[in-house]
Design brief:
9-stranded mixed β-sheet, 16-stranded antiparallel β-sheet, about 1000 residues, about 15% helix, alpha+beta
């Protein structure tokens, strides 16, 4: 091998080693031995997803699906999963981490329940049900190292319990943070007599103490994870198990005296898009109430929540020692709710004054609030991360524990608060915080500096945390007691026009009312209920007034009642037309006076109706008299209009269109009659010596040429004809010189009728037509049931009456000749849509136009299309415009979308491919002597599917070896030069 060849390979080889060392540093093996993935359950076996250890043997436990779609494991009594020991799971190094993510229920047996164990005592985490504690044990150097949790755990809640041992200290972590002080014991090895025993999940190894509950995950590491890694492990497990809401903080401010400082520093909150809750006691009696109420309204308008803090701000627990709960509610709670509600703020949250509470106070106020807030009993180890009560986990817990951020609270340092915010964001929980006054310089108790406030808001904002109200948390099923909700007056009447002496039935539809008063407006006594029947005896116009009220608001509603003299009705009517050709549809309108209760129509052609405003169709020529009889309780009356309706036959007007007007031989053409004037016979001459008497014939041309197609229509009053040319081309006529395809011209001058298409026929793959009658101010829909194109239907509101109108949808072979360029994205279909004659389908004639189209699921899957990116694009004003598009529904074959469009023209259905991760591969520089062979080899490999590259796991410590080899190699190269 020549030196320069060696140099090239060495250079890239050493560079490759150097790159591996960097990758190894960034993605080093975590030392995790076992991680079980319940979703890969094969029935009797739970699959080890880490590549280490043995698969777990499933003994009777059952599966269920999590909100994230994953599968988890439920254990019933003695059910368990056993992980048989093997060499990879046998280790004596004193560094170990193991644990489970679990939930237990209240039906667990008394005593202890094993969650995970190796043997019975080598390694173990269990539940002490008597004391609601977690206990754990590690066996090392012949000594059992055991301890218990520092806080209680509860049934039907999720916990991740992780135990670590580093050769000198054993520590329990619950939900990502250290729990309890742990236990110190120094050893050089784990218990040798137990290293060959099996791991058991869900029970002890002898199946004595079984778990009733759930285990989501099991972890085993052959090293000691640090606290940051354990928090990350918990956060990652949460994301894979639950559909987490965004984490963040719920920050509230206490006392009416703090309204002014919150308002003064509102710009600081708005700088970070932060909103808070402010808890108020009696406002109206304050010296600066008028100013403070305006500032409070500004806070509410800025998105703040206004909440309750006790009307007189007394200590709740102390007050209840000498007073019954009813007195406390009447004196402290109800007046506070009423005051805040009357200001227009819904009262959902209550913050205990001085955070003083007990079970009796909780029971008294629970029905009236979604959320109750007190304070944490103490900050564990001076670290908010370890103060688990401070975090709300979206479990409908009504009582929340807040952490005070005022700077006299010495146990809440700013770093601890920021760590707590970080924990909440990572775990999808909410850190509950509260303070009092805001000031640039802290001079006493109950003050938070603006610098501390900015640090808290900025840290939450910069790390993607959400600012929650107190009312966003708590009992999601709670509903406000009606007496403290805004009242709404509402009622209905059986009729609002009646004869004197008749009755009206009033029906109450009001909301949240405690009292109501209905004044009938005729001087009679008012009613205390709106569910009542009232008789009006004297003709006149009366205003009925319903007034309703509750503790926080009052509302009224008025209705006009018209009472007319009690006489027989007087019949009269009108119609939308009186003359026309058959079939003639006439809409009759009753204009009788005197409140008729029934109607009887005689249309003069033998037909009758009892409807008030009937529509009748006259199918025969003639002159018809129409009679209407009306009746009420006082009598009847009739009127007849002699020779009122005149129906006659008029000469027809010939008109038709075809699905194509030119094409290659043999050319099959479908003709459609759209003649007016009720023709009763049709005679088609196709111009090639053949004819037809069908109304809508289909004809095939077998010779090249131009044919004059003539339609003659007739009825008793006359005859009419129309001629249109059909061009039949030779099969070689593909030079684009053919005439425009589409329908022939026709229709009236209003813009409806049948439009033509400017698209060359050779670019039209298929087309479908739809006809309907268009009337001004009506919603119009064109359906395309033959499914010939991607268009399902289109609809719009018409601004004009155009009569029978045809819409043509063309699915194109390529982009329209009217569009010089293509739209962005992957194109599913190019389409043209033409509605009526040219110029009709624009915003001058239509509005609120919607197009429904469908896309094959197979195209989406084959192309890797993002479903949400699929859209309808319209070409207009020399450019493509993406239309507002919404996924409407799905079936087994298609996705159905609707798009809003201002008009009709060329369209394109497009989608965007799902972005794939880019992989950049460094290729070695080719050897100059072998460059030709290398080039040929590379060319030969183009288009072949590359072999999947396996992830390289690097043993910890090897990165340094790689770096040393790299430096030595470069040193040798520099010497050789």
């Amino acid at each position: 091998m020549k030196f320069h060849s060696f140099k090239t390979y060495v250079k890239y080889g050493l560079f490759f080693i150097f790159m591996i060392s960097l990758v190894g540093t960034a993605h080093a093996d975590t030392g995790q031995l076992v991680h079980y993935n319940w979703s890969k359950d094969t029935g009797n076996t739970i699959v080890d997803d880490s590549g280490h250890g043995n698969n777990g043997i499933n003994s009777g436990s059952t599966t269920f699906t999590l909100p994230t779609g994953q599968i988890t494991r439920h254990f019933s009594g003695q059910n368990q999963i056993t992980i048989p020991n093997n060499e990879q799971l046998t280790f004596i190094d004193p560094n170990i981490t193991f644990g489970v993510f679990f939930r237990y229920n209240s039906s667990n047996p008394a005593g202890n329940t094993y969650l995970v164990s190796k043997g019975n005592t080598a390694f173990r985490i269990s539940i002490d049900h008597k004391n609601s504690m977690l206990t754990y044990e590690i066996y090392a150097n012949g000594q059992a190292i055991h301890a218990k949790s520092g806080t209680r755990i509860q049934p039907n809640k999720d916990y991740e319990a992780i135990v670590t041992y580093d050769g000198s200290h054993a520590q329990l972590y619950i939900n990502g943070v250290a729990n309890g002080e742990g236990v110190d014991y120094t050893s050089v090895a784990l218990g040798p007599s137990y290293i060959t025993e099996n791991w058991t999940i869900g029970s002890s190894s002898d199946s004595t103490y079984g778990l009733n509950g759930t285990i989501y995950a099991f972890h085993l590491y052959n090293r000691t994870l640090n606290s940051s890694e354990i928090l990350d492990l918990y956060a990652n497990d949460l994301r894979s198990i639950k559909k987490l809401r965004p984490g963040g903080i719920a920050l509230s401010w206490d006392d009416s005296a703090r309204i002014r400082s919150c308002y003064k520093y509102l710009p600081i909150f708005q700088k970070y898009n932060a909103t808070c809750t402010i808890n108020l006691n009696n406002v109206i009696d304050r010296r600066e109430a008028e100013i403070e109420l305006k500032e409070l309204d500004a806070l509410y308008s800025a998105g703040w929540e206004i909440a309750v803090h006790g009307y007189n701000h007394i200590d709740s627990a102390i007050f209840l020692k000498s007073n019954p709960a009813e007195v406390w509610l009447d004196q402290e709670i109800f007046p506070n709710i009423v005051e805040i509600s009357r200001y227009g703020y819904p009262a959902y949250t209550f913050a205990y004054p001085y955070s003083s509470r007990n079970t009796a106070t909780d029971a008294a106020v629970t029905p009236y609030f979604r959320t109750l807030r007190t304070r944490t009993p103490n900050i564990v180890n001076g670290n908010i991360n370890e103060t688990t009560l401070a975090y709300y986990n979206w479990d409908d817990t009504q009582l929340l524990y807040g952490v005070e951020i005022d700077e006299h609270a010495l146990d809440t340092s700013l770093p601890s608060i920021l760590h707590g915010i970080d924990y909440a964001i990572k775990t999808g929980s909410v850190l509950v915080l509260y303070g009092h006054g805001i000031t640039p310089n802290v001079t006493g108790q109950y003050q938070t500096s603006t610098s501390r406030l900015e640090s808290i808001l900025n840290y939450t904002y910069q790390n993607g945390g959400v600012f929650y109200h107190m009312g966003d948390l708590g009992n999601s099923s709670w509903e406000q007691v009606p007496r403290f909700s805004k009242v709404t007056a509402n009622y209905t009447v059986s009729r609002d026009i009646l004869l004197a002496g008749e009755s009206v039935t009033f029906t109450d539809c009001s909301v949240n009312q405690a009292t109501e008063l209905l004044d009938f407006g005729d001087g009679s006594p008012a009613s205390s209920t709106a569910n009542v029947i009232h008789t009006y005896t004297t003709p006149g116009t009366y205003t009925a007034n319903l007034t309703v009220s509750n503790d926080v608001s009052t509302d009224s509603m008025l209705r006009t009642i018209t009472v007319i003299p009690a006489t027989a009705p007087v019949a009269n009517f009108a119609s939308n037309c009186t003359t026309g050709s058959r079939p003639l549809s006439v809409a009759f309108t009753d204009t009788s006076t005197g409140l008729p209760a029934s109607w009887s129509w005689d249309f003069g052609d033998g037909s009758k109706s009892l409807a008030q405003n009937p529509v009748h169709e006259y199918s025969n020529d003639g002159v018809y008299s129409v009679k209407l009889t009306v009746t009420n309780s006082k009598g009847l009356n009739s009127t007849q209009k002699i020779n009122y309706i005149i129906v006659s036959t008029r000469p027809p007007s010939s008109n038709f269109y075809s699905n194509v007007t030119d094409g290659d031989v043999p050319l099959t053409v479908q003709f459609y009659d759209i003649s007016t004037g009720s023709p009763d016979s049709w005679r088609w001459n196709f111009g090639d010596g053949t004819d037809s008497t069908e109304q809508n014939p289909m004809h095939t041309y077998f010779s090249v040429g131009t044919y004059e197609v003539n339609l003659v229509v007739s009825n008793a009053k006359g005859t009419s004809s129309k001629t249109v040319a059909i061009t039949v081309l030779g099969n070689s006529s593909s030079d684009g010189s053919s005439k425009n395809g589409g329908s022939g011209s026709g229709g009236g001058s209003r813009g409806g009728g049948v439009g033509g298409s400017p698209e060359p026929a050779k670019n039209v793959k298929v087309k479908e037509l739809s006809q309907t009658y268009i009337k001004n101010e009506n919603r119009v829909m064109f359906d395309f049931p033959k499914n010939a194109t991607a268009i399902v239907y289109l609809s719009f509101d018409s601004k004009k009456t155009t009569g029978k109108t045809t819409t043509i949808v063309e699915m194109l072979k390529d982009k329209s000749t009217l569009t010089p360029d293509a739209p962005d994205g992957e194109v599913y279909n190019y389409l043209n849509i033409w509605v009526g004659n040219g110029g009709y389908g624009t915003d001058k004639s239509i509005e609120n136009a919607v197009i429904c189209f469908k896309v094959e699921k197979s195209w989406v899957e084959d192309k890797g299309i993002d479903q949400s990116s699929i859209s309808l694009n319209r070409y207009n004003d020399g450019k493509w415009n993406r239309l507002p598009t919404t996924l409407d529904r799905k079936d087994d074959k298609y996705l159905y979308y609707t798009a809003e469009t201002p008009g009709f023209s060329p369209f394109a259905i497009t989608g965007k491919t799902i972005t794939k991760e880019n992989v950049i591969e460094l290729l070695p520089e080719p050897d100059p002597e072998n460059s030709e062979n290398e080039t040929q080899n590379i060319a030969a490999n183009i288009g072949q599917t590359p072999e999947k590259k396996k992830k390289i796991k690097v043993i910890p410590g090897f990165e340094m070896i790689y770096c040393i080899f790299g430096l030595l190699g470069w040193r040798l190269l520099s010497k050789s030069r």
